[in-house]
From TrEMBL:
This is AraC family transcriptional regulator. Keywords: DNA-binding, Transcription, Transcription regulation. InterPro entries: AraC-bd_2, AraC_XylS_family_regulators, Homeodomain-like_sf, HTH_AraC. It comes from the Bacteria. One of its GO terms (molecular function) is DNA-binding transcription factor activity. Residues 215-314 form the HTH araC/xylS-type domain. It holds the Pfam family HTH_18. PROSITE patterns: HTH_ARAC_FAMILY_2. It comes from Bosea caraganae. The lineage of its organism: Bacteria, Pseudomonadati, Pseudomonadota, Alphaproteobacteria, Hyphomicrobiales.
Length: 322
């Protein structure tokens, strides 16, 4: 993972460096800032390679960005881009797609080699996540038609992309190359379905839906494991599939839905036992979604061959991160 920020650069030199080295050199875009705001600029970014793709998170004070025809000629990248607005809001203008805004949480897509302009709509500036997927056999020639446009929340696959993208971002550092490639290509195909340039019933689309639904299910489990009421019916409802279909998604993984929920709850319990040595074990059990202290003790002992209290004592002197 590559991380960088303007913090180590003199205030008056920050935007020039960002414009020439980061914006133009890394992203192939033109960046502009009002002269009276030059000394106030701050920015940071992280770039995580995921095979040939890249997951970028960018946070910066307001400025204007454009991908011009000159930028495209100078630095073509032939990639499908998936954007997720993490905070604030953005304004976009696409060459053939008109103008649109991206409130917090919005997903948008585009092909990298089509012109656009964008700027933040609030003082929060830019805070977004971008997945850049090189075009290739896994995509379609029609990806080149994708002018910048938000995904329609009324299209069912959009919610799936949202959860799948969040799952990828949360687990990016822990995925092996095969897992990363599978998830990235699934997101690419799901995006093409959402934009109407891929047939949802094709073999590649059905495979992407399976990968995406499993990823989304795992994301929901991780997000809601603290709820004792978390059930297969709830997760299946979130995904728009049957409970039977949900269980079938987990069969090839060797870990059932129930086992996945228990694993997520135990992982959080272990974290709390490490980082909160004075928190009562009962409080930890209920905070992690276990319906009773007896259940927590039974499950914990089965997994770690010791009760939670002994586990906590075994960590004494090792620090909060174990």
């Amino acid at each position: 993972m590559f991380s960088w920020s303007t913090d180590h650069i003199a205030p008056r030199e920050r935007f020039e460096h960002w414009r020439e080295v980061r914006a133009k050199g890394v992203f192939g875009v033109t960046a502009e800032l009002d002269p009276d705001q030059d000394g106030e600029f701050k920015g940071s970014m992280t770039i995580r390679p995921l095979g040939a793709a890249a997951l970028v998170e960018l946070h910066a004070t307001p400025y204007r960005v454009s991908r011009t025809r000159a930028d495209i000629a100078r630095a073509p990248s032939d990639s499908l881009c998936l954007y997720q607005q993490l905070d604030g809001g953005g304004w976009f203008e696409a060459a053939r797609g008109g103008e649109f805004v991206t409130p917090r949480g919005t997903l948008a897509t585009s092909h990298s080699d089509l012109p656009y302009s964008t700027a933040p709509m609030t003082a929060a500036g830019f805070h977004l996540r971008v997945l850049k997927i090189p075009n290739g056999a896994a995509l379609t020639r029609r990806a080149h038609e994708l002018v910048a446009m938000p995904l329609d929340d009324r299209v069912p696959v959009t919610a799936l992309i949202q959860s799948c993208f969040s799952d990828l971002a949360a687990k990016a550092d822990n995925l092996d190359s095969a897992q990363a490639e599978s998830l990235v290509q699934a997101l690419a195909q799901l995006t093409l379905i959402a934009r109407g340039v891929a047939e949802a019933r094709s073999e590649s689309s059905r495979a992407a839906l399976r990968v995406g639904r499993l990823s989304a299910a795992r994301y929901i489990i991780g997000r809601d494991a603290d709820r004792a009421s978390l059930s297969p019916a709830f997760v299946a409802g979130q995904l728009g599939i049957s409970v039977r279909h949900l269980h079938a998604l987990f069969e090839p993984t060797g870990q059932s839905f129930s086992q996945s929920v228990t694993a997520a709850r135990l992982a959080e319990a272990c974290r709390r036992l490490r980082q909160h040595p004075s928190q009562p074990v009962a409080d930890i059990a209920f905070a992690c979604g276990f319906d009773s202290l007896a259940t927590f003790h039974r499950v914990f002992r089965a997994a770690f061959y010791m009760p939670p209290g002994d586990y906590r004592r075994s960590l004494q002197g090792k620090g909060p991160d174990g």
